[in-house]
Structures are given as structure tokens and as C-alpha cells.
Amino acid sequence: MSLQIIGDPVLHSKSPVIQGAMLAALGLDVEYTSHVVRRGELPQYLAWARENGVTGFNATMPHKEDLIPLLDEVDPAARTIGAVNTVCLRDGRWMGFNTDGAGAVAALKDGLSMDPDRLTVTLLGAGGAAKAVALALSAAGAERVFVCNRTLSRTQALCAQDPLGRLSPAGFDADTLSGLAAKSQLLVNCTNLGMAGCPCQFEDFSFLDALPPNAAVFDAIYHPAETELLAQAKGRGLRGMNGLPMLVNQAVLALEHFLDRPLDRPAMAAVAAAALNQM
């Protein structure tokens, strides 16, 4: 049994540390490594993985959406989202799952003591992670999730996938973001703006001024630990959380898929968090 995380970039990923610690705590001698796979190389990677004993892998950017048509079977929830982040080889078939959304909801409850039920949320982005988080927030009872993206047709397509009708498409200009932030108790960033290695950054942070004093900011990025968005939020006295708690919680769910059995999730999350703190 061998496990990996693939992406580009991916060598910065903390998943090997998290998964390695949990596997060791379970008494399993299983290797979990990072593997750079560039866009367009997925078919070759899947063939290589099958031949080299890889029984499962996590996927990060830019592969979460591109994997869908290449897999033998995709979990219905992941297909609705249109992205997978966890792939398992079972009975010779590649099966895809998505643990991002459930991991994000768990992180909000654990890290910010925020239950999505009845919240109004402004969510930035319309990619694979944004879809997973937005749909999970809706399913968890959020009253309204405003999904903001520069390409309105993309966010309209995302919102149309919500069977509960709680997602609303919106633009990404400063005035729109400020207007929506004023109505929200939570702002979530699911874009790559501010990520280490990404040259892109928010043009301005004035929309943070519109958030209510009791609001929180959740940046799904975890490298760097404090993005400029979180630094700006802190400077305004707002609570903030990076993507590490989401990473930990989705990793526990992913390991359940890899092992095909339930785990003691709080215990595993504690193991993973302890491993990260020792880095």
C-alpha cells in the first residue's frame, strides 16, 4: 500500500506530515509522499500509479476538476461538486471522492466556533474548492452564500448546482464585495490570491471594512500561515483562521476513504494537529 498527494506546486504540502502521523498512530507502515504532476499529465500518472503500487492519492490544484472524466467511478457528492480531492484504487477501479466541503464545515466549528446554520456568507472563488465549500455550507444550513467570481457565468453555473437554492452568484468588484460583506457574518476565501508562489494578490482590502465587528474571515490557504488577507482582517480586529484546520479535517476524512473504514475523527485530528505543531 502506498499513498501520495499530487499537484503543481505540491512540494510545500503538509499532507505527508499529517497523513504520516495518522498512519503511524494507527500502527500502519504505509508511505505517503508528494508527487509533482503537471496539468495535462494525469492520464500518464494514473497509469504509472497503478503499475507502481499506489493505492490512493490526494489531489490539489490544478487537478481536482480534470480528474473527473478519467476515473472509473465518482462519488455522487463529488460529481455534483465537479471536483475530487481523494482517489482510491478499489478492485482495480479508480474511485473519486471530495472531502473539502465536510472538512471546511468541521474546521469552522472547531476553529472558529461557528456553526454554518443560518449564517450569511460571502465566499470568494468558483473553482473546485469553492464549489465544495459553498455546497457544504448550504447543506449545513447557511441562510445565504454569496459566491463571488470575476467570471459571472462560472459562479452562476456553480450556484445552479445547489439543490437547496441557497447560493447566489455575484461579481468580484470592490463595491459588490463591500455590499455583500456588510450582510455577512463570515467571509471565506477559496481563491489562490495571497498563496505562496502565486504572484496574484487582492487589489485592495476595503471590503473587510464592511464586515460586522463579530464577523470572521476564513482563508482556505495555509501557506503562508498568515496571508495578507488574514493580516488585514486582524488589523481590523476581526477573527481569522487559515486553511490548516480544513486541511486536517479533510485529511481525516480522506484517510477513512483510503482505509475504507471509519476512524476516531477527533483523535486523528488531534494527532495531525500535534504533528503540524512540531514542524
SSE layout:
Blueprint: E1 2-7, H1 15-25, E2 31-36, H2 42-51, E3 54-59, E4 73-74, H3 76-81, E5 86-90, E6 93-97, H4 100-111, E7 120-124, H5 128-139, E8 144-148, H6 152-159, E9 167-170, H7 174-181, E10 186-189, E11 216-219, H8 228-235, E12 239-241, H9 244-259, H10 265-277
Parallel strand pairs: 1-2, 1-3, 4-6, 7-8, 7-10, 8-9, 10-11, 11-12
Antiparallel strand pairs: 3-5, 5-6
Helix pairs in contact: 1-9, 1-10, 4-5, 4-9, 9-10
Please tell me about this protein's structure:
The chain has 279 residues and is an alpha/beta fold. It folds into 2 domains: 2-98 and 245-277, Rossmann fold (3-Layer(aba) Sandwich), CATH 3.40.50; 101-242, 3-Layer(aba) Sandwich (Rossmann fold). The chain contains 10 helices and 12 strands. The protein has helices at residues 15-25, 42-51, 76-81, 100-111, 128-139, 152-159, 174-181, 228-235, 244-259, 265-277; strands spanning 2-7, 31-36, 54-59, 73-74, 86-90, 93-97, 120-124, 144-148, 167-170, 186-189, 216-219, 239-241. Strand 1, helix 1 (15-25) and strand 2 (31-36) form a beta-alpha-beta unit. The model has no long low-confidence stretch (mean pLDDT 95).
